[in-house]
Every structure is written in C-alpha cells, then in structure tokens.
Amino acid sequence: MALWAQMTPQLQFLPTQILNELYPDTFPLDVRHYLASWIEEQRWENFDVDNMEQEPQARRLLDQMVRLLQEVAQHNPNVVERVKLQHISRNLVCTTNIPNPHDFCWTVRDILRKERHLLTQVVATNGTPQPAREDGKTDVDNLVLKVLEIQNCRQTLHQLQEDLNWEKQEMESIQGQNELDPQNSDQVTRQNRIQQLEYNYSVCAKKRMQLLQEAVCALELCQASLILRIKSWRWEQHRATIGVQFDDNLGPLQTWCEQLLGVNSNLRQELMLVKRDHGVVEQFHTLQESLAHVLQTLIKNSLVVDKQPPQVIKTQSKFSTTVRYLLGEKMAPGKPVLLKAQIITEAQARQGVVPNENVGELINSTAILEHNTASKNTCATFRNMSIRKIKRADRKGSESVTEEKFALLFTTELTITGCESPYSIQAISLPVVVIVHGSQEINAMATIIWDCAFSEPDRVPFIVPERVPWKQMCEALSSKFMSEVQTQRCLDRYNFHFLAQKIFDQPDITEDFSNMPVSWAQFNKEVLPGRTFTFWQWFEGVMDLTKKCLRDYWSEGLIFGFIGKQHLHVILQNKPNGTFLLRFSDSEIGGITIAYVGPSDNGGRKIQNIQPFTKKDLDSAGLGDRIRDINCITHVYPDLPKNEVFKKFFTVPSPPNPDGYLPFKLTTVTSKIYLQVLIKKP
C-alpha cells in the first residue's frame, strides 16, 4: 500500500482531466482506494500485451478482485458508499465477461506505472511540475520553528523547576510553626503557589513530549519528501540520456539534507534531555528508534552519482565519473574517506548488497571523498578508470553481448559528526554496456536508449518492458534526435508516420499507429525488410549525418526528413518541374537525397530521386553548393526559390593561391561529379 499512501496526498492537486485519464470507468478510483494493498501485492508487470497464454491467470485475478470488492461493500457502514461499491462490482463482473480479461490487467499495470511516474514530481494545481516546494524550504522552516518551540518549552520547564525548588525551600524554613499562628497565611499562600507551579510543570512537561512527537512525525514526512526528490533527481538524470531536460544542480538538495540532519541532531539532543529531566518516559524508546532510523536513511541516501560514467564503455579505454556526498560537510574529521568502485552484473544489482564475486577488473577504482571549501561540495572523482576485462553471464537464445547490462557500485564507510558508529553506504550508477570493439557501440547504445526511455522509476534493476506503445517510442525518438543534433526542431507527425511504416513494415497503411506495440526486436534485433541493418542502426545514421553536416538545414526547416515515397508522390505530384525536397535516404545508412519533379520521356512529369549524399560526400562539397549546382531543381517545396533559401549556405570561390597553384571546386550534376578548374586571368 506504500504507493497508494504516497499517491493519495497528491490527488487533490491533479486536474480532473488527468484524474479521469488515470482512473478510467473500467477501473474507478474507488477500486484503487479500497483494494490498494491487494492491488500492489499482485504482479501486474508480468502481463505482456500480446501473450494470450496469460488469460487464465488474468481471469483469476479479476474474479478475486470482484470478490474482495463485494466484501468491502458488504462491510461498509456508509450506505451511500456501500451501494456505490456494489454497483462498481457489478460493472466489474460485466468486465470479466469480455473475451480478453488480459486487457484489463494490462490497464491496471499501466495505471500503477503512471502513478509511479507522477510521484517523481510534485504536481501543482495547474498540472505542471512544482519544484518540491522550493526543495522542502517550507517544511524545513516549520521543523526549525517546532524545534525552537521544544527548546522554549524546555527552558520554561527549567524556570518552573527553579521556582518550585525555591518555594519548597522557603516552605521548609517556615514549617513546624504553630498552625494557629498568624504567620500561617504565608504558609498557605506558599503551599498554593507550589501546587500551581507543580500543575504548570506537569502541563508543560506533557506539552514538551507532545511537541517532540509532532516534530519527529513532521521530520519523517519532510525527509520522505526529500528522499522522493533525490530519487526524482536520479530519474531525471537517467532520462537525460535521451535528451529530456535535466537540472543537475544538487545544491538545493544538499542544503535540504544538511538542514534535516541538523533538525535530527537537535531532536535527539532534546530527547536525551527529556530522559535527564524525567527518566525514561512513555514513548521515549519509540521516538529514539524513529530518530535513529530516519538518521540512517538520510545518511545512506545522500550518496549520489553526480557525473555518470559513459553508458557504453569499451574495455581498455579510460573514462571518468564523479560521486558526491550531500552530507560531506558533516563528516567527522580525521581519517580520509575512501570510496571504492566495482563493476556488477544486473543480477548482482538486484540483490542490493555488496557482492563477493568480481565480474570485472577495474583499474584506478578508488578515490578519496574530498571537500571543496569554495563550492562546499564533497566529491570523489575517478579520473582514469578503465575496465581491463569483463566476465560475461550465460546468454539466452539470441541475446547479444551488447544487450547485457552492468553497473558501477560505489561503496564506503564513514562517520557523521555527532554519531558514534560508522555507516556503510553505497550508490549505483546507471546501467552500462561493456563492449570490446568500436563496431559494437551503436548496438550497445540501442540497449541504453531502450532502457532509458522505457524503464520505470523505482524498478527492480534493470527491468525494462519488451514492448511499448508506438507513441512512447515517438517521444523517445524525437527527444533523442533533438538532443543529439542540438536543435529545437522536433520530429512532426509526418515523420512519425513514416517511421512507423518503416519499423512495422506497413508502407501502405495510413491508420494511426499510436497505440500499436513496438518490440525491442523490431527496434534493434531484426533487420528491416530488404535491408542489412536494423531500425535503430538506420535512425542513428540519420542523427549522426544531421548532427555533423545538416544541423542548420534541419533547424531552419529546409529538410523534410523522414518521408515515404508514397507520401512524397502525393505532395509533389501537382507541383511544377524543378520542385524538390530533401529527405533522408530509406535504403542507405546516413544518407540524404533530393527528390524532385522532372520531365518524363513521354513529355509528362515524374518524380525522381538523386543518389543519396553521405557524410563523406558532404565533407567534400556542402549540401548548399550541391543544390546550387544542380540545374534541374529550382524551387524547394512548397514553392521557395532555391537561390534565395539556400544562398547563405553557398560558398564563395577561393582566390588564387599565392604559390601559383590553381584553385578548384567540386561541381555536382545529376549524372556525375567532376572537377572544374577555375582559372582567373591576370
């Protein structure tokens, strides 16, 4: 029920539209609420979108869900809620009669995924991410005020105790006198005053404990928000691999950690003073254990990988990474803290403990946590790390070495000022793929891209779905393309449609592909029909060409890009001769071609494609110059004169060399490329 407990406070901030999308009519919010524990105990992630062999298991889960909901309805004392739940359970019974109850389980799985995604952000009422209430500033301020209130209460108790001691001493000095003596009025007055002081002391002591309990509870909640924000930072860092915007500034989180450590220290001190003043009172051990647990959690979650290692690492090659400790300023002085790195497998990462078996040999695998007084950062930087050798796991079926994921595990032991015992802490890097040859890099990066784009927050390392909806793939491809090319122009719906036709091998289909599942095999295991390369290998080639040779052309919208030949004929068929557009080659990795309208042999018009230009071609003569040289193209689609649009990309002929050599340039024609010598007469 942990997920629902975190989700419930955020519901009030979600717009109605998001709530309706998150909890559809087939799975109402009431079901999620009343069956929260049971729902989160089931293995919804095991359901695959097209594995119909799981249908009996899916039906059993649905039947069990209906029975549980009926029991909840039967025992609900609220008649309105009881009727409502009975109505929902009847609808679910109807749902279980559909031919494929497996779809329902897939829906539940997606709802839980969306909840986890929403919890990586604090959502404001307008649906936009809110920066965690200025990274917990409001909550921490309230905690500090609560601690001050406890300290004031303690000081008040101290003053009351001193007044009480004084009154009792004065009372003892006049005791023994005759009660009939007129001075007895002073004795009665002092006795009343002592009783009043004792009452005030008792009330203040109770308030002191109540404030301590409230402060510890508030600290737990505030720290839970901090831990969630640290996890969110790690998740955003992971998503940055495909170009998702990421603020890597850890300063606010470090301040938050330090403030909570200070609050924890103050509360532990106040609790010990309670023991001094009143002995071991009720709730003392509970509060002591809570503060110790919160402290341990904070110390262990404050180690983060600030600068990740490359996610594709070639053996025998140097790389660097930086690990930062957010409580570095609070470490006890003395012996240097040594951080050790080791490479671990996916299976070892799931165990969550430091493995005994080494699966790889790391060079330069230790670094000292050093504090920089200027930046106030405490970091261990591994500058010249290298993987000398790696031990591979047994692979299943057609699994390639470029699909095997590892990680770097960083461990150390340190002591925090004010704490008696040292703490063993660790942090794990993002998944990495280890290769032995540069030719494996593109396939290895495909593994990383799939992992980054489609993994879930707080997953079991490093589980990732085998299939995802095409619309998710579109988001990932566009984000990665923009990031890699360094452009603000994203892929549009025409590009996405062509890419879908290509990856699904359905060039004649015009329907919406958004919800069609695309598999890892289609992405980078199976070669495209009639080709020798996979979809990712082809797409990566386009990105590389655009980044190195065509960024400005793409950014200014001069390249249509991803378009199929059928769509090409539709938009060019009624255009005059000489109209052209630029599209990425469908048949060659890393090529761009010019499609244009030209005369046919029978006097009509036909659409022709010029042989693709590769990076090698464009290095010798830029795209602008090639477009200028080809006389049969005059207007770029839809009807813009090429000499105006591409003028800024034309190069000026070189002047004669002072050494007497004649300059030359490459000129492009549609039949061949030849050298034209330019001779400038004196």
From TrEMBL:
Keywords tagged on the record: Activator, Coiled coil, Cytoplasm, DNA-binding, Nucleus, Phosphoprotein, SH2 domain, Transcription, Transcription regulation
Coiled-coil parts of chain:
150-177
Q: What is this protein called?
A: Signal transducer and activator of transcription
**Quick one: where is this thing mainly located?**
cytoplasm
Q: Where in the cell is it found?
A: Cytoplasm; Nucleus
Name the Pfam families for this protein: SH2, STAT_alpha, STAT_bind, STAT_int, STAT_linker
Provide the GO biological process annotations: anatomical structure morphogenesis; cell surface receptor signaling pathway; epithelium development
- Outline the extent of the SH2 domain: 554-596
Q: Which family does it belong to?
A: Belongs to the transcription factor STAT family.
Q: Which SMART domains match?
A: STAT_int
Q: Name one GO cellular component term.
A: cytoplasm
Q: Which GO terms describe its molecular function?
A: DNA-binding transcription activator activity, RNA polymerase II-specific; RNA polymerase II transcription regulatory region sequence-specific DNA binding
Origin organism of this chain? Answer: Cyprinus carpio carpio
